[in-house]
Amino acid sequence: MEQEQNENEKQIQNQEDGQNHESESENFIKGLFCGILLVLICAAGTLFYARWKIAKIQSGTTAGVTSEKLDLDLSQVKRKTGEIEALINAYYLDEIDAQQIEDTLYTGMVAGLDDPYSVYYTQEQLESMEEATSGEYSGIGATLSQDPDTKEISVVSCFEGTPAEEAGLLPGDVITGWNGNPVSDMELSELVSKIKTDPDEHLTLSIERDGEELEVKLTRRAVEVPTVEYEMLEDQIGYIRLLEFDEVTAQQFEEAMSDLESQGMEKLIIDVRNNPGGVLQTVCDMLDQFLPEGLIVYTEDKNGKRTEYTSDEEHQFTKPLAVLVNGNSASASEIFAGAIQDYGIGTIVGTTTFGKGIVQKIFYLSDGTGLKLTMAKYYTPKGHDIHKKGIQPDVEVELDEDLQNQSSISHEEDNQLKKAISVLQE
């Protein structure tokens, strides 16, 4: 009986073990199924969230990288600047220029964007910037520089047909006085401002030339900065050098083209080497004289809004064309070269351009100051984004090493220009 009972207990135990194994197997299958289901739910949720976020970014309503919103805690900013102000007033040793501190505060706010092209301008800086891009100002038509060590102010160049050239100022002349006042303690910007804004149009500059003291009398007037240089080379090859794309450049360019055409130009080289760019509308107006009807360039802002600039069918350039570029050809220069390259109406010669494919806009603030902000990317007609990449030349040629540090290079020395000429002759 005892043995029979033991056998029954073993049989019951075996049945219970079998049931346990079956239960564990069922639990494992249920767990596996639940796990798979959970993974699928998570994956679907992740995919839904990703699509939602992309849609938000494209609509410009997300707080992501593309449409990051600045949301300063103004109460914290006010409290902290108040603490700093109190400490400066209590302990700072030297004189305090409150306006300079305030301007630097705004400058630092924009600098926090870590974008070298976004800038805060004081009212004076804004006026100077506008004057520079217009290409016109009231002055004498001379470029001046100041030695950082000696503070000596000297003439760098005089524009053709300006008061400076007519009065006989020469490169290298050292300016020692202005209307009888010494300039030894002046900053360059201060002297330039006095020359441009003095109520009397007549002024006298004291200069030193080859050890001799001289006085030069000038009459200030409206001056247009020459941004276009041109000449006819051999074999009826026109050569136009574009220094910048200012507001006056389009008209100067048109006059240069007209003159070269009247001289029987058969081929053309446009040189935008070392051209830092300028006004977007100016380069578009100039390209309209070259391109067939179609897209010149387009921009896209942070919300994906696209703005197109187009050419009409009225003007086209059909003669052999080469465009010279280098690593300092930037912004509007790259728009020019990129459009010529995309349409295939000219050959790009030189080295890869700078790679500035972003657009800035000036915003005017209520107190007369201003803000320049990067607000869009531009794309070539074929949709190329060249920012931080540049435009690759069709024919790559480096400037000879012994010429790279020279301030001026003759046509006879310029191997890049020679290559452009040979391309046109071929």
TrEMBL record:
Similarity annotation: Belongs to the peptidase S41A family.
Q: Write the protein's name.
A: S41 family peptidase
Q: Species lineage, top-down?
A: Bacteria, Bacillati, Bacillota, Clostridia, Lachnospirales
Bilayer-crossing regions: 28-50
Residue ranges of domain PDZ in the record: 126-196
May I ask which residue range the UniProt record assigns to the signal sequence?
Answer: none
Region annotation (Disordered) maps to 1-21
Keyword list (alphabetical) reads: Hydrolase, Membrane, Protease, Serine protease, Transmembrane, Transmembrane helix
Superkingdom of source: Bacteria
